[in-house]
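Aim 2 progress update. The chain analyzed this quarter is reproduced below.
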Amino acid sequence: MSNVNKMIYHIKQYISLVGFIFIFNMLSAFPAHSSIILEDNFDDNVLDAVKWQEFDHPENFIREANRKLYFLGGSSALISKDKLVPVDNLTLVATIEPRQSGIAIGFKDAGDEYNLKNMVCGFYLTETGKNDTAVNNIQIYENGQVKENPEWGWLADYPFKIKIVLNLGQGASYYIQGVGYAEFGGSEWTLLYRSAQPLPKELKAGVINSIKKEGTAALSDWVLRLDDLYLSTSAFEAPLTIKNLMLAQPAAHSMTLLVKTNILSDVNVAYGTDQKYGQSALAEKALIHEITIPNLKPATAYHYQLKVQESGKAENSQVIADQTFKTAPEAGNFSFAVIGDMQRCEIGETIAALSANIPDFIITAGDNIGGERAYFTADFAYRWQVDVFDYLQGLTNHLPLFVTPGNHDYLKRRGQALTAYRQELSLPNSAGREERYYSFDYADAHFVVLDSTTNSGAGSVDVEQIDWLDGDLAKTAKRWKFVFAHHMIYGADETKYIDLWRLPEYEILHKLFVKYKVNAYFGGHRHVYNRYIKDGVVYLCNPSAGVGRCLESKSGEDNYPNDNHGESGTLPKAVGNQAGFTKVDVKTNEVEFSVVKNDGSLVDKYQVK
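Predicted structure tokens:
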């Protein structure tokens, strides 16, 4: 080919690519960086018919929900509708959380089918044998053949991020994120394999789930969860994505806003009592921005709008349109919702029911994430995103969130878990103890959150916390007092598991509650709903928010009887095998507790005066 013909050929390629970029930027729900030619953060709960087409799933085995793409089984596949022309750096990046093996993601030829035989280059996640033992591994797949087994021992149901960089003249390079293999979200990419195999001029991108499964499995059995899928003409550029938007620490005269992005960004918050805004706050060059808005009026509705851009690159930006929040009243009626024991279970139905019972803020009862498979700080941070924030996006943008720690949030890797806990959340630091336990006031009520977690999973509240609690309750003059911790105090079933459910310091804590006239204690952990009354203190075990495994075995499904020591108002027996939340309405002379099932029906209602 002559130099002139080569120039013409490359000009045609460039024009084709520019046109492709323009089309996808116009169709994208959010403004995309100019280097991105196809990206999807699965934010609208509907598969994008413009970008994707599906194959071989007779019963809708592919689903978009909660900012994730789910594959259920049945040999389903999802591929891009348009052909992609490789340039110097055409890159596919995806975060993958498999539940079983037999999953491929990468580039295929320009045909209409998607299977391993026409996989031009990609990752294949499978279960295979090594030393006569079935283990999971990652394979590099090219043109229907296994080229390399770069990693053995990846954990099913464990997240990791992959990247494939195509080069028209030099083949493909395959990366995994993290210096150590299990380090999800690490700051470095580890090269697993580099191929010099020539590449076709036209490709498609996609995912195939080759597991054969009859019928429709339970939600807890999704075999693949996909996040952060995008294609770029640069090996190192990504579209700006707002991962989390959360209101926190509501007060009569201030509100805190937590904004998390996938790359270093600048955040400008415009706010005011109407959509003219009039005031603004700016935070720059961070992944997580904690912005406190001061000098607000009590019990007042405010509007706010966000403009977020990549630091130093104004063209890579997003605008979050008008949102609202309300400051706390100095006195008067209000309500809050208690949700807990989410821990990687399917909580979508409970969140929908909660959305129909709007409180003034939300507080959790612990076990917010499934941290049992997390190893590093980034792993725990990822779990906060996919187990909590992805579900709560439609609530925390206008309702503040408080969090109680649970045993699944910490587990044995306490240092890494606490680092993620502090950076992913914005909580009061009133006790000066890493936000693990704290107190706050809202209207005429005082709230205390305790950390009852230990490395073993069994609960305990140490002497330091008990001393702090004594002093904290002694100082408040609020009419209503509520205490939260993950583990139970009263109402645990008298079985061999009682030490697992109940705090060993239960008598000491109860005496403090009686001394300072605490109205209610909220726990969780047992995954059932229970109400137990002792010396005028209401002990509520909040139901699990999740279905599936959260309601199985010794936790969740047991309608065990309460013992004979409960006073009037104690339930005859716990209510198991039901997911839901508790809505608490606080009035001048009365508090009403309403337990709501995940289908919106009322499980129980109780008042104290």
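Confidence is low (pLDDT under 50) at residues 1-34, 129-134, 213-220. The longest strand covers residues 255-272. These observations will guide the mutagenesis experiments scheduled for the next reporting period.
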